[in-house]
């Protein structure tokens, strides 16, 4: 059987695409995975790969043709398969040409109502989603017939993108999916499939930090601080220095946030929450520590208020307490960055020309490339590192 | 009432009409009849030249009832008029310039171009409006008469309407109320024989509209509507009665419209002969001959009056053509006294 | 002894007081209608006014709605301020010519040279067992006509103030009075006062849903809101008060706050108040704040039946409002 080459759906609410370029012609040999044509969508040009090995034939959509999603535009024939045996739809896509622009689109466009891929959502839900650069298709609606309501969007926005991979199942018991799990799943899929991530790593020298922390925690009457409290503060101050990164992608434009609100991942039974410490850059460490503690306690008791987890302009995820040396986290949309923090470990370090024992903490910054380019991300990580390695700067 | 007999009884100028009105007033009446005739002809001409849109209802042939009725009216008296209302408006004292401006839909028109042919009215001269609804103005005239009575004025309200209107419920309800409340209103029916295409013979259970007055216990008078003196004398009596608080009257003017109902009329319901027969009874020509016979005017003076009317209408049309069109952003203007927007 | 400044009056008494005060203040004001004299009006609204003001100012008309309406129009044009009572709003059909073609349009047709300061009162609504020709709510008919103003006061306080405002108004104002409200009591100041035409009022503030209601439905909506508040649903109830011109700002502000809209009215649901308000919201900036479909609760697509069970079923009742709003808030609609 010849393999159908269809015009694939490559965009959320795409009902049709325009073929912008063919890289093969009838009779060409193709290998599975080779780019055979490109399609133009509202947002970008997408490459379409050959779905199998063989000889391309019966290309039926010319460059410029508007083709509904799912319609065959060519076939790949195996050895000895008859090119003539394929029956094509009578209305074959034709090119839009300068001379004859009239009979343009080709096959009938599917109506956008009915069972279309367009999510059913209330105007308010759409408005909130728009403001947060959120794709509604990533959400599950709790209203009648799956209608997405404002509440669904709010809940979606307030639930963290979990970093920890679910532990592999020991056997094949089917665990029912609860709302938290479903939300985590949807948001992760949405983030990982729509946000172009890249990762930057740095091994930070935390000798001084640990020493300073020890000193502070030894003083009677001062608040007890965790390493994570320092990390949160350092990330906030770093984002202050590189404000381009304290931003979110939305269709309307890049939203640059004035204050740095840091979501802190808190693991709970069955999932995790990311409550938000607001305006971290302006708060003393003691206050940050106290707030994180309160929020974490509330999260564990499942008593977080929607206002506790709404918003956030970046996230800190720390798996150091589990002995994880380094990891990369998935961004929590519409945030543009997340910092994954590993354990502080004693290890040989090169100091000048000699090797000595130092303490290093591996930090990995994940960035949304739509908002944060490599250089900006690097600046942010460098600023963070500089602050965390000179922790006194976090105190004044 | 025998029209012919009445005239024969007045070989000299003994009729009340000629005794009551000075020669100047009679000349002015003729002038107004000419103004109406020329206005209608000018309107028809403008229509055919494509200068106006919409239709119109011409009162050529009915000038005597309009002018004869209004000769007795003061500025504070009211009239209500009909879709065939240009004549009433002129008779009550309107300026043809401002009427033509309205006819052309201009801001300078009496209704700022919002009313058009069917609603031209000079409120200042006591015209409460020409009405596009058959019999629409009759109860309104009764209401105005009620106001006059409440305000203890000795004014009257005259309601013009056609034979067709007398078949409407509003006519009967209004006449009944005017009578039970003894209101100062004069109902002037211009019976031109047809309600659009249907003759009075086919549409009325009685022979004369005036017969219907009996049902409302008011005088019902029939006059030759093409003879201004007949109309005027009947209205004179009716207005006197009204002003004296004795209640309403109904006057039926037997007349004829020479033109069709409106510009879309193809005259399928009446004969050419009938139209010609009535054209021969032209009310203007009749009045001219009377005035000349009675020595009130000579031919030369008639020519002067006619020429002056022609001149005035020509100037009115020029004035209207130069008028200002309303601007689209004012489409809701004057819907309410205080603009809601 | 001075009369107390605020007394409890019935809706009908409040009307009568407004009419009397208007006639006291302005000799141009007079009343006309069928059986409003010694009979006192079909619903005893004019009561004994004829004895106080005489037959000239409290005029019985023949049973001739069209002609009498035209008389009112003419009197208004000629300097009077008539207040015309229909026995039943249903009979407005007999007079529509004068209301729609004359009263509403004369000012416009005459280029703004005249005004028609006319008030018409229409006892409306079902619930009295008067069946199909004496129970209708036809306010939407008249609200469709530019040149008219249409009001539906829902309380004794409002009817007095709005009726006085209507009598002051230079343009024709149509007053729809629900017959079941005539006996309703409420605080009414003794002195004359005005409640502006064209201004809605929030009768109950809430955050969960905006219920826009008219006339008697305001009271049913308020009852429903009380019941719903026990279920944690916090409804805002807006008394529209004026159907033309509609106070869009108050409704838009409310819907932006609550994200939900229900329209409750007794007139036939289709092409009625709810259609207008819904469409207005859909066109407005409040659209983007809607978090649920809009709900319309209006009269059945049928004439008002005689049988009391059917009669009740043909217009929104409190329980129905509760149930439908609950469904909406709980995501079943």
From TrEMBL, chain A:
Family per similarity comment: Belongs to the 2-oxoacid dehydrogenase family.
Cofactor needs: (R)-lipoate
PANTHER family reported for this sequence: DIHYDROLIPOAMIDE ACETYL/SUCCINYL-TRANSFERASE-RELATED (PTHR23151), DIHYDROLIPOYLLYSINE-RESIDUE ACETYLTRANSFERASE COMPONENT OF PYRUVATE DEHYDROGENASE COMPLEX, MITOCHONDRIAL-RELATED (PTHR23151:SF90)
InterPro entries, alphabetized: 2-oxoA_DH_lipoyl-BS (IPR003016), 2-oxoacid_DH_actylTfrase (IPR001078), Biotin_lipoyl (IPR000089), CAT-like_dom_sf (IPR023213), E2/Pdx1 (IPR045257), E3-bd_dom_sf (IPR036625), PSBD (IPR004167), Single_hybrid_motif (IPR011053)
Domain Peripheral subunit-binding (PSBD): 120-157
Enzyme Commission number(s) from the entry: 2.3.1.-
Residues covered by the Lipoyl-binding domain: 2-78
GO MF annotation, one: acyltransferase activity
Keywords noted in UniProt: Acyltransferase, Lipoyl, Transferase
Protein name: Dihydrolipoamide acetyltransferase component of pyruvate dehydrogenase complex
UniProtKB/TrEMBL annotation, chain B:
Catalyzed reactions per annotation: N(6)-[(R)-lipoyl]-L-lysyl-[protein] + pyruvate + H(+) = N(6)-[(R)-S(8)-acetyldihydrolipoyl]-L-lysyl-[protein] + CO2
Name of the protein in its database record: Thiamine pyrophosphate-dependent dehydrogenase E1 component subunit alpha
Residue ranges of every copy of the Dehydrogenase E1 component domain listed in the record: 31-327
Pfam families linked: E1_dh (PF00676)
Keyword field: Oxidoreductase, Thiamine pyrophosphate
TM spans (from-to): none
Gene3D superfamilies: 3.40.50.970
Cofactor: thiamine diphosphate
Alphabetical list of PANTHER family matching this protein: PYRUVATE DEHYDROGENASE E1 COMPONENT SUBUNIT ALPHA (PTHR11516:SF60), PYRUVATE DEHYDROGENASE E1 COMPONENT, ALPHA SUBUNIT BACTERIAL AND ORGANELLAR (PTHR11516)
Keyword Repeat part of the UniProt annotation: no
Source organism: Dongia sedimenti
Stated role: The pyruvate dehydrogenase complex catalyzes the overall conversion of pyruvate to acetyl-CoA and CO(2). It contains multiple copies of three enzymatic components: pyruvate dehydrogenase (E1), dihydrolipoamide acetyltransferase (E2) and lipoamide dehydrogenase (E3).
TrEMBL record, chain C:
Statement: the UniProt record of this protein carries the keyword Membrane: no
Keywords: Oxidoreductase, Thiamine pyrophosphate
InterPro entries given in the database record: THDP-binding, Transketo_C/PFOR_II, Transketolase-like_Pyr-bd, Transketolase_C
E.C. no: 1.2.4.-
GO molecular function terms attached to this record: oxidoreductase activity
Pfam families: Transket_pyr (PF02779), Transketolase_C (PF02780)
Cofactor (UniProt): thiamine diphosphate
Domain (Transketolase-like pyrimidine-binding): residue spans on this chain: 9-184
Gene3D superfamilies: 3.40.50.920, 3.40.50.970
PANTHER family registered for this protein in UniProt: PYRUVATE DEHYDROGENASE E1 COMPONENT BETA SUBUNIT (PTHR43257), PYRUVATE DEHYDROGENASE E1 COMPONENT SUBUNIT BETA (PTHR43257:SF2)
Protein's name according to its UniProt entry: Alpha-ketoacid dehydrogenase subunit beta
């Amino acid at each position: 059987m010849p393999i159908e080459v269809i015009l694939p759906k490559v965009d959320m609410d795409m009902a049709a695409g325009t073929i912008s370029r063919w890289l093969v012609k009838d009779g060409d040999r193709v290998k599975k995975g080779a780019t055979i044509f490109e399609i133009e969508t509202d947002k970008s040009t997408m490459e379409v790969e050959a779905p199998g090995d063989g000889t391309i034939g019966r290309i039926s959509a010319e460059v410029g043709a508007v083709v509904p999603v799912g319609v065959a535009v060519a076939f790949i024939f195996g050895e000895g398969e008859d090119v003539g045996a394929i029956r094509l739809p009578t209305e074959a896509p034709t090119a839009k040409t300068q001379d004859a622009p009239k009979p343009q689109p080709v096959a009938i466009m599917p109506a956008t109502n009915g069972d279309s891929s367009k999510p059913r959502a209330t105007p308010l839900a759409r408005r909130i989603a728009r403001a947060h650069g959120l794709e509604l298709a990533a959400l599950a609606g709790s209203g009648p017939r799956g209608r997405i309501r404002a509440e669904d969007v709010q809940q979606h926005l307030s639930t963290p993108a979990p970093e920890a991979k679910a532990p592999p199942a020991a056997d094949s018991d089917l665990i029912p999916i609860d709302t938290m799990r479903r939300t985590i799943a949807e948001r992760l899929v949405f983030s990982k499939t729509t946000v172009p991530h890249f990762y930057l790593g740095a091994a930070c020298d935390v000798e001084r930090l640990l020493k300073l922390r020890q000193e502070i925690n030894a003083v009677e009457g001062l608040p007890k601080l965790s390493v994570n409290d320092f990390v949160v503060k350092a990330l906030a101050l770093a984002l202050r220095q590189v404000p381009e990164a304290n931003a979110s992608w939305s269709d309307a434009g890049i939203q640059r946030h004035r204050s740095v609100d840091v979501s802190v991942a808190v693991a709970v039974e069955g999932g995790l929450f990311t409550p938000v410490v607001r305006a971290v850059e302006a708060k003393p460490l003691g206050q940050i520590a106290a707030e994180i503690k309160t929020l974490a306690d509330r999260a564990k008791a499942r008593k977080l208020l929607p206002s506790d987890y709404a918003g956030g302009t970046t996230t800190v995820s720390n798996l150091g307490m589990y002995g994880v040396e380094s990891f990369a986290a998935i961004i929590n949309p519409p945030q543009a960055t997340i910092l994954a923090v590993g354990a502080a470990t004693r290890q040989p370090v090169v100091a000048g020309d000699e090797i000595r024992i130092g303490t290093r903490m591996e930090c990995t910054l994940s960035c949304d490339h739509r908002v944060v380019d490599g250089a900006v991300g690097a600046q942010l990580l460098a600023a963070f590192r500089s602050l965390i390695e000179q922790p006194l700067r976090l105190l004044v | 009432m025998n029209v012919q007999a009445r005239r024969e009884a007045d070989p000299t100028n003994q009729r009340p009409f000629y005794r009551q009105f000075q020669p100047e007033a009679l000349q002015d009446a003729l002038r107004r009849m000419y103004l109406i005739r020329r206005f209608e002809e000018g309107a028809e001409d403008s229509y055919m030249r494509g200068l106006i849109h919409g239709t119109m209802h011409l009162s050529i042939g009915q000038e005597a009832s309009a002018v004869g009725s209004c000769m007795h009216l003061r500025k504070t008296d009211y009239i209500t008029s009909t879709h065939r209302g240009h004549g009433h408006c002129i008779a009550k004292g309107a300026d043809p310039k401002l009427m033509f401006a309205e006819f052309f839909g201009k801001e300078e028109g009496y209704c700022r171009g919002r009313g058009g042919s069917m609603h031209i009215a000079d409120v200042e001269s006591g015209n409460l409006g020409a009405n596009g609804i058959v019999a629409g103005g009759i109860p309104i005239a009764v209401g105005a008469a009620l106001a006059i009575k409440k305000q203890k004025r000795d004014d009257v309200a005259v309601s013009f309407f056609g034979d067709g209107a007398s078949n409407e419920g509003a006519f009967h309800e209004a006449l009944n109320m005017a009578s039970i409340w003894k209101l100062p209103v004069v109902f002037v029916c211009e019976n031109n024989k047809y309600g659009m295409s249907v003759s009075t013979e086919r549409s009325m259970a009685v022979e004369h509209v005036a017969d219907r007055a009996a049902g409302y216990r008011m005088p019902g008078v029939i006059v030759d509507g093409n003879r201004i003196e007949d109309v005027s004398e009947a209205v004179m009596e009716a207005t006197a009665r009204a002003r004296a608080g004795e209640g309403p009257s109904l006057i039926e003017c037997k007349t004829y419209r020479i033109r069709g109902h409106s510009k879309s009329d193809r005259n399928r319901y009446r004969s050419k002969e009938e139209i010609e027969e009535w054209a021969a009874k032209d009310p203007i020509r009749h009045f001219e001959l009377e005035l000349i016979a009675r020595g009130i005017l000579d031919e030369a003076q008639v020519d002067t009056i006619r020429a002056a009317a022609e001149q005035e209408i020509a100037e009115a049309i020029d004035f209207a053509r130069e008028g200002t069109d309303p601007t689209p952003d004012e489409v809701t203007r004057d819907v309410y006294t205080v603009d809601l927007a | 002894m001075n009369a107390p400044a605020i007394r409890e009056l019935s809706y009908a008494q409040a009307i009568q007081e407004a009419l009397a005060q208007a006639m006291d203040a302005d000799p141009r004001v007079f009343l006309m209608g069928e059986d409003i004299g010694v009979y006192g009006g079909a619903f005893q609204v004019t009561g004994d006014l004829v004895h106080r003001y005489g037959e000239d100012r409290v005029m019985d008309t023949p049973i001739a709605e069209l002609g009498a309406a035209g008389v009112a129009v003419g009197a208004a044009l000629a300097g009077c301020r008539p207040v015309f009572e229909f026995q039943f709003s249903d009979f407005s059909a007999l007079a529509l010519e004068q209301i729609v073609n004359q009263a509403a349009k004369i000012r416009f047709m005459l280029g703004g040279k005249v005004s028609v300061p006319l008030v018409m009162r229409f006892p409306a609504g079902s619930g009295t067992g008067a069946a199909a020709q004496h129970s209708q709510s036809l306010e939407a008919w008249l609200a469709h006509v530019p040149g008219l103003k249409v009001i539906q006061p829902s309380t004794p306080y409002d009817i007095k103030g709005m009726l006085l405002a209507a009598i002051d108004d230079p343009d024709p104002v149509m007053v729809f009075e629900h017959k079941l409200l005539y006996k309703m009591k409420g605080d009414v100041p003794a002195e004359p006062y005005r409640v502006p035409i064209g201004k809605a009022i929030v009768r109950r503030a809430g955050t969960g849903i905006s219920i826009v209601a008219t006339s008697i439905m305001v009271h049913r909506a308020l009852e429903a809101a009380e019941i719903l508040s026990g279920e944690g649903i916090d409804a805002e109830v807006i008394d529209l008060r004026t159907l033309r011109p509609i106070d869009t700002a108050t409704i838009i502000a409310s819907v932006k706050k609550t994200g939900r809209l229900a329209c409750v009215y007794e007139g036939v649901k289709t092409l009625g108040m709810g259609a207008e308000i819904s469409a207005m919201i859909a066109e407005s900036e409040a659209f983007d704040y809607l978090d649920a479909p809009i709900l319309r609760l209006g009269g059945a697509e049928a004439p008002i039946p005689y049988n009391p069970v059917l009669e009740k079923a043909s217009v929104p009742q409190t329980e129905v409002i509760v149930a439908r709003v609950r469904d909406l808030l709980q995501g079943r609609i």
